[in-house]
Design brief:
Shape of chain A: globular
Largest sheet of chain A: 7 strands, mixed
Radius of gyration of chain A: 24 Å
Strand content of chain A: 15-25%
CATH class of the largest domain in chain A: Alpha Beta
Number of strands of chain A: 23
Oligomer: homodimer
Number of domains of chain A: 2
CATH superfamily of the largest domain in chain A: Aldehyde Dehydrogenase, Chain A, domain 1
Strand order of the largest sheet of chain A: 14-17-18-13-12-19-20
Structural class of chain A: alpha/beta
CATH architecture of the largest domain in chain A: 3-Layer(aba) Sandwich
Distance between the termini of chain A: 63 Å
């Protein structure tokens, strides 16, 4: 049985069971056996993380930066083994996806987080010189990270965006592996552990358990030693954790399901039908549709062009061979969602059944008319995680507006409109309805690319996430989730955190931006203001 | 029966009962009869607020600023009647407290909020020019505000800090009056309503109901038409609302009870005993102790000086006549808390019983030894809202550290230390334990003043509030609670919100600060960077 990582040591788990991952390409179980941890492991991790949080708090941001950068280097040095392992556990293509796209994204995130930790602007140091009151976002304490199944590197609980943001903010991480790729997570945690040791951070800065009982998961997110949790995954499990964390008053950041509506306005179809088809199909089937931002719901106004669009998508769906899904669970859940949609009245245009070899599902296209959608909007927004999409064909633009009015909270919403202005009036009418329902609004672009940009919002209104004010992707914004606002009132200068002292502790472009008496500056308190 | 304010009209409530406030100076009921609203009133307010939110969203920040400034002017024009009414309903002194301190604070907040609304920096516009991704905090939708009993103006649901922040952020407010000062709230809402009309904002920008059943309150905070709630008051009622809001995934910001620990270190007592006594007593008894930030728990190391400190406080507590409390409820609750503390083993040094005339309570001082505190720390942290304080006398500094380790989340924590350095080592040992438990740390200063500073944190860890990352006081920071992160990815320039377009829409010092490619600036996109 594989060991867990507690307080810097790989040690046997206190286990209440075990599990193995499976190779989705063949369905065969993989050799390593992983423990289901009892509460004792979680309790030990929490105790060690509490101690580590205090020690981390005394170190400068540059120490966290050194770890994050070293961790990125170590991941790159083991890239081949990581890509092989992740490929075996997830069925995702070794190249380009894993080795050439996701792994560089992961190390890029770690390096961006390193820069943010060293520089410190994320913490929004705010100084009121007149009242001598100063405030800053301080690390909130240990963070539990629950990673999803669909990004074995970039959202991995032991190496992905949440870990990078939490550690950069000064918070030790207790990683809960996704049970479909435990070995990948173990390898990443090995590198994290080695990098922690090499850079002298507290031993419990990164810890790992693979799986716990549901009750122990709920107990973890509600434990008073924890500062916050970050969860990416299914709505059911996420909302159960949210209920436990909320009752204890401990922040939990969720990234749950989303159908990511796409409005294909008439002018766009008239202007560039084939491009609309191609862009939609490529985005919809990318990674077998297994993205949080997969476009799962297309809204159209009925017309000959709309029929051509749907027919074009159907043709491409039928022509492309399905890729392996991440796991048998994903396949079963996708099939169940397709059944739910059909039961509600959606018409099957393509796919709708499992494929082969291994764990696959035929690319699936469903269709529903606007009247039916309006009558049971909740059912038709059932997320079919994977390679399936629903087309909603509305009678007219008024019905389209009504459908948008019944949309639930989503991560993204995309609007395709013509470039000559024919759709402008309709855009102006529809987007005010769509905008409050989505975290990210896209023009003429599919939502599957989630750039690691300071302006990104990978978040959105409930139930896409648990709080509409935070993003899980984008640096430094994603660090703010793990900040606790600390105010210093009349505190003597030498006792202030370095970033709140009169002299900005950094140098040159690595000095933090601070708001001093309402002016954002990298200068010291008292320095002349830059000319505007 | 007094009317409610729904969608710009004062109209008869759909009521399920009625209530009157009482004059705490005499205990006599006041003449006006106010309705307990049925759900119909709340439902109508929510419907009107939804429409108003969309209309407000189309207006520039300067329109909200004009309203907030006009509202402040109107409050000043009616200052005499407001102070008389609030005095009658709360027993707080007409002057200086109500007329000369709280009313100017309230209009000052409204004017600061006006400036923040006009300028826009609160929304943290963030532009990534390379990826053409831009994000901003947008108004979250209608906000329900539940005001407390202890600030009839400055935290009033129809005129206080939460209303100012919500409207400045672009959110209509549904005010739920505190039932101990409904007439004051009504007068303020009259001025708000007139200012809304004069400045052309949507009629439902400010609405008012006085009271609802508990179930309807829970239904309100969980209604999907609502963007967020802000509640200041008792822990029991606040947590009931939080449970309802959390289950619906709608943010609720709470400002609950707090005992605001004060550490009196030995050197401070040795250096300036009388000043320590005077500052503590003045802060403790200010406003009959009815402040969220009232210092209710003093932690000391046993010594002759500590005994002198306690004796000095006791003498002053006994010498000063008690002031009227806000209501008979406050008095009953204070008495119950004192009983709880005594039952747990606290020794009564002064007070401990109701006084007269009207609603008063004798200034109450309790004492508990460190051993006893450690054995039942939760009981000894029972908030006694009003003019009561608990002294915790520890055996030694190790026991003091242990006591701090068992403190709950608080709004503030104060540390008095000597100025020559004798306490420095102890400060360095204790403050790392105290810091994560409090929102605002003070050196040599009592916590009762809560400056409206951009660096203020009137917030803190649970259960002082519901989320440690936000503040209820301080502009522009308090506006962030009411923001929803909106990202624009590849959106065409003319379709962007003005603050995200290349050209900064403001002029001079009223231009918003924006983060453009990681640089905070008031310039347009593409302008040369200021020299650092």
């Amino acid at each position: 049985m594989e060991p867990v990582l507690i307080d810097g040591a790989w040690r046997p788990a206190t286990s209440v069971g075990s599990f193995r991952a499976a190779d989705p390409a063949s369905g065969a179980p993989l050799p390593c056996e992983f423990p289901v941890s009892a509460w004792d492991d979680v309790d030990a991790a929490l105790a060690a993380a509490s101690t580590a949080a205090r020690a981390l708090g005394k170190l400068p941001g540059s120490a966290r930066a050194a770890f994050l950068a070293r961790f990125a280097d170590r991941i790159e040095a083991r890239a081949g083994e990581l890509a092989d392992t992740a490929h075996r556990e997830t069925g995702l293509p070794r190249a380009p996806r894993l080795a050439d796209v996701e792994l560089p994204r992961t190390t890029g995130q770690l390096r961006q987080a390193a820069a943010a930790a060293a520089e410190g602007s994320w913490s929004a140091p705010t100084i009121d010189t007149k009242a001598n009151i100063r405030s800053i976002l301080a690390p909130c304490g240990p963070v539990a990270v629950f990673g999803p199944n669909n990004f074995p590197f970039a959202f991995n609980s032991a190496a992905g965006g949440d870990l990078a943001a939490a550690v950069a903010a000064g918070c030790p991480v207790i990683a809960k592996a996704n049970t479909s790729h435990p070995r990948t997570t173990q390898l990443l945690a090995e590198e994290a552990c080695a990098a922690v040791r090499e850079t002298g951070l507290p031993a419990a800065t990164v810890q790992l358990v693979y799986r716990t009982g549901h009750e122990d998961g709920a107990r973890l997110v509600a434990d008073r030693r924890l500062g916050a949790s970050a969860y990416t995954g299914s709505r059911t499990a996420g909302l159960a954790l949210k209920a436990a964390a909320d009752a204890a008053g401990i922040p939990i950041y969720l990234e749950l399901s989303s159908v990511n509506p796409v409005l294909m306005l008439p002018g766009a179809l008239a202007e560039r039908l084939q491009a609309c088809i191609d862009e939609f199909v490529d985005s919809s089937l990318l990674g077998a549709g297994q993205f949080c931002t997969n476009p799962g719901l297309v809204l159209l106004v009925g017309s000959a062009a709309a029929e051509e669009f749907i027919a074009g998508v159907k043709t491409k769906f039928e022509a492309r061979p399905p890729a392996p899904l991440l796991s048998a669970n994903v396949c079963a859940s996708l099939d169940a969602s397709v059944r739910t949609l059909r039961k509600a009245g959606a018409r099957l245009l393509a796919g709708g059944e499992p494929g082969s070899p291994g764990v696959r599902y035929a690319h699936t296209l469903l269709r529903v008319e606007g009247d039916a959608f309006l009558a049971d909007a909740e059912a038709f927004q059932t997320e079919a995680f994977g390679n399936a999409a629903v087309m909603v064909v509305c009678r007219d633009t008024a019905q389209l507006a009504a459908c948008i009015g019944l949309l639930d909270g989503n991560l993204t919403g995309s609007v395709y409109s013509d470039t000559a202005g024919a759709d402008d009036a309709l855009y102006d009418r529809l987007v005010p309805l769509l905008r409050p329902k989505v975290g990210r609004l896209l023009d003429d672009k599919m939502p599957t690319g989630v750039a690691v940009s300071p302006a990104m919002n990978h978040g959105g209104p409930y139930p896409a996430t648990g709080h509409p004010g935070f993003t899980a992707v984008g640096i430094p914004a994603s660090l703010r989730r793990f900040g606790r606002l600390e105010c210093f009132d009349n505190v003597r200068p030498a006792r202030l955190p370095p970033l709140l002292r009169d002299a900005n502790p950094g140098a040159g472009d690595t000095r933090a931006w601070r708001s001093i008496d309402g002016v954002w500056t990298r200068e010291n308190v008292g320095a002349p203001l830059p000319r505007l």
